[in-house]
Design a protein that fits this description.
The termini are far apart. The protein is an alpha/beta fold. About 55% of the residues lie in helices and about 15% in strands. It is elongated, with a radius of gyration of 28 Å. The protein has helices spanning about 1-20, 75-85, 105-135, 165-175, 180-195, 195-205, 220-230, 235-240, 245-250, and strands at about 25-35, 40-50, 55-65, 95-100, 160.
């Protein structure tokens, strides 16, 4: 069984490598995840591209790497560089690198950009010297020089695009500050109910639903928490009154 799984994995990797080689442009996405209890952390790296043969957008997870503390920009940069090297994805194919706005993510991409410039500085210098040599060999009685043409790069190497969901989260947080009082009360009610198995059981028997708690890193979770509370408001009030928790919450 293990050998069969290993063979299937190798075949899948070979197929993905072929697809990546055929793709014209690839968008790389980065995201970190930490296990509950902060036991272990991972960095997920995925690739998104358009497959011409099927006419569909494809999205694959390239690597899921365990991150050791500290999660610095240098550490993330090494993981990203290893993944791109492993899958043989050249710089010229990378359209964008999408990540959240964390300082370590931003630094990781900047380090990749700096390394690219450093690796290509000698090549660019050789090209400039060749151009100078060509100019020296031109005849003195040549016709008027051609007009200078601005040479623009075909694309910006390793350009980073901030994650839209994470940016929305940063924008919405200051807005929540104006409703801090009501949000604190809502979280208190939800927290008390979710810690009581009796309250949860009675709530499900009454309306078939439970309360939803919000998460600081999910921009729409607070909206969903309030929406659910308003939707089952009557059932919540009845259950809390029945078990004697309503007066305590006041």
């Amino acid at each position: 069984m293990n050998q069969l799984i290993a063979e299937q994995y190798r075949a899948s990797c070979e197929k993905l490598e072929q697809l990546l080689q055929q793709a014209r442009r690839i968008t790389i996405s980065l995201d970190g995840w930490t296990k509950k209890g902060l036991a272990v952390s991972y960095l997920g790296i995925s690739a998104c591209f358009f497959e011409a043969t099927s006419g569909k957008a494809r999205h694959f997870i390239l690597d899921l790497m365990e991150l050791k503390h500290p999660h610095t920009g240098e550490a993330l940069h090494r993981c990203l560089e290893q993944s791109l090297s492993r899958w043989k994805i050249p710089e010229r194919k990378i359209l964008l690198i999408v990540s959240d706005n964390g300082s370590n993510m931003v630094k990781a991409v900047k380090l990749l950009q700096s390394k690219f410039r450093s690796d290509n500085s000698e090549i660019n210098q050789d090209v400039m010297e060749e151009m100078d040599d060509d100019d020296d060999e031109e005849e003195e009685d040549s016709e008027e020089p051609e007009a200078d043409v601005l040479q623009l790069p075909s694309h910006v190497p390793f350009r980073r695009m901030p994650c839209m969901a994470h940016t929305l989260q940063l924008l919405i947080k200051p807005v929540y500050a104006h409703f801090q009082n009501v949000l604190s009360k809502a979280r208190h009610v939800v927290g008390k109910i979710r810690k009581s198995s009796v309250a949860m059981e009675k709530l499900v028997s009454r309306c078939g639903k439970i309360v939803v708690s919000d998460c600081t890193t999910r921009w729409n979770s607070t909206f969903l928490m309030i929406k659910r509370l308003l939707f089952i408001k009557s059932a919540v009030t009845e259950v809390l009154t029945e078990i004697g928790m309503f007066c305590h919450l006041k």
